[in-house]
Amino acid sequence: MSSPNTQQPLQRCLLTVEGYLDLGMLAEAEQEIQKLFFFSRIYERDISVLSLRCGIYQRQQRFKDAWKVARTMCEVSPTCLVFWKLQVILLFAYKGPTAAYELICSKTELLTDLEFFVDLMSYLRNLCS
């Protein structure tokens, strides 16, 4: 987690990136995110930063890069169904339905929460139809 001293510049950067995204200025949004990493690697696993990076890559249709970011989001917050759904969507776009299905089936720890697993599988079924 970032310290209070780093919160203000982080928030300013995130607002700038969101503004660029709203305006469709994807290259500028990506450059702004990269500035964070130039100054400090502590932001590499910050969910706010990861979410914006994923959004940038999605809009650029860089599904492989977006999927890698979504995968990191799942590592940072493994119980967040929204991040798992995002990862499934992006893997589906990047490699197709079989890869998305195999991802879900390979995560045996998800099987301990049957509702979570069923929700992901239902979501994938809806993507395929």
TL;DR?
With 129 residues, the chain is mostly helical.
* Helix/strand order, N-terminal first: HHHHHHHH
Low-pLDDT ranges: none
For the largest beta-sheet, the strand count, sense and barrel status come to: none
Number of domains: 2
Mean pLDDT: 84
Helical segment count? 8
- Number of separate strands: 0
Describe this structure in words.
There is one protein chain. With 129 residues, the protein is mainly α. It has two domains: 1-60, no CATH class; 63-129. 81% of the residues lie in helices and 0% in strands. It contains eight helices and no strands. It has helices at residues 4-22, 26-39, 47-59, 63-76, 81-95, 97-106, 108-111, 114-128. Helix 2 (26-39) runs antiparallel to helix 3 (47-59). The protein is globular, with a radius of gyration of 16 Å.
Keywords:
single chain, 129 residues, mainly alpha, 2 domains
Layout of helices and strands:
Layout: H1 4-22, H2 26-39, H3 47-59, H4 63-76, H5 81-95, H6 97-106, H7 108-111, H8 114-128
